[in-house]
TrEMBL record:
The lineage of its organism: Bacteria, Bacillati, Actinomycetota, Actinomycetes, Pseudonocardiales. InterPro entries: HTH-type_LysR_regulators, LysR_HTH_N, LysR_subst-bd, WH-like_DNA-bd_sf, WH_DNA-bd_sf. GO terms for cellular component: cytosol. GO terms for molecular function: DNA binding; DNA-binding transcription factor activity. This is LysR family transcriptional regulator. PANTHER family: BLR3139 PROTEIN, HTH-TYPE TRANSCRIPTIONAL REGULATOR YBHD. Belongs to the LysR transcriptional regulatory family. Residues 1-58 form the HTH lysR-type domain. Pfam families: HTH_1, LysR_substrate. Keywords: DNA-binding, Transcription, Transcription regulation. The keyword Acyltransferase does not apply.
Length: 301
């Protein structure tokens, strides 16, 4: 069994497709299929069910998956140890990020990391399922580190550090019936349609939990994956929205309504999987991030 066998196996397991796995690995699909078949012959068991539209893991494949990740992590740690002795840092860091964060100057951070460690490659990944999707990808080993906007309590299987927090308020058009109100209850707000992010995004979870705790139902009529664009839909009269003020650099034509019976906050954290020790390259990324953001910040208010 070679490390390449395990890399190809995990690529198929993560993507659910031999075609997508080949694209991720930058090899031909027939090569991935042949490698996985060779691994199955060596283990004497099929690792994937190929009968449906999507490739899924068999019981044997599910048993192998965490061990394969552990093996590759151990091999990476061995390389890191040698590189440290040589005085050079090499490796790849896969970073999950949200569609709209300006708390962290990510281009500047990566430029500094590149200047200090030119042998480190960073891959940025976004999840259409928002923070919930990124957290799951961390658990599965698809990501090394991720920026998450998960509400408390924070998952026990992730190591997280708070980077920023911001209060959420409701933004409405100037002509809206709520425009004359400075504060409103959740029940009052629920009388109107909302613009929000899809289920699984951090801010959506915070707001949904608040309404559920109050026993109030609301209607989300427009969902946008990039929360920074929500204000444009509010201006167009398609609904009202819970937003942090940093997402609304130009509030002209809008009115802000505070929540009278709730304390809703958006929190940004950086996270790694608790069960896996970060590689040297990932540690360098986290250390540089800590240097730039040693304490949580509160966006302007």
């Amino acid at each position: 069994m070679e490390l390449r066998h395990l890399e190809h196996f995990l690529a198929v397991a993560d993507t659910g497709s031999f075609t997508r796995a080949a694209a991720r690995l930058h090899v031909v699909q027939s090569g991935v299929s042949a490698t996985v078949r060779a691994l199955e012959r060596e283990l004497g068991s099929e690792l994937f069910d190929r009968s449906g539209r999507h490739v899924t893991l068999t019981a044997a494949g599910k048993a192998l998956q965490p061990r394969a990740r552990d093996t590759l992590d151990a091999a990476r740690a061995a390389k890191d140890a040698v590189h440290r002795v040589q005085g050079a840092l090499h490796g790849t860091v896969t970073v999950g990020t949200l569609t709209a964060i300006d708390v962290v100057d990510l281009p500047g951070l990566l430029a500094e990391l590149r200047a200090e460690h030119p042998g480190v490659t960073v891959r940025l990944r976004a999840a259409m399922a928002g923070s919930a999707g990124l957290a799951q990808h961390l658990r599965e080993g698809r990501l090394d580190v991720a920026f998450l906007a998960l509400p408390d309590p924070r998952p026990s299987d992730l190591d997280t550090r708070l980077l920023a927090t911001a209060e959420l308020a409701v933004y409405v058009p100037g002509s809206h019936p709520l425009a004359g109100e400075h504060r409103a209850t959740l029940a009052r707000l629920a009388e109107f349609p909302f613009v929000d992010t899809p289920v699984g995004f951090g801010s959506r979870t915070v707001v949904d939990r608040a309404f559920a705790a109050a026993g109030v139902e609301r209607e989300v009529t427009v969902e946008v994956a990039n929360v920074a664009t929500a204000v444009d839909f509010v201006r167009a009269g398609l609904g009202i929205a819970f937003l942090a003020d940093r997402l609304v650099p130009d509030p002209s034509g809008l009115h802000v309504v505070q929540v009278a019976d709730g304390d809703l906050h958006w929190r940004l954290t950086v996270a790694t999987a608790a069960a896996r020790r970060p590689s040297a390259a990932t540690r360098a990324f986290l250390d540089l991030l800590h240097e730039r953001h040693p304490t949580p910040v509160t966006p302007r208010g």
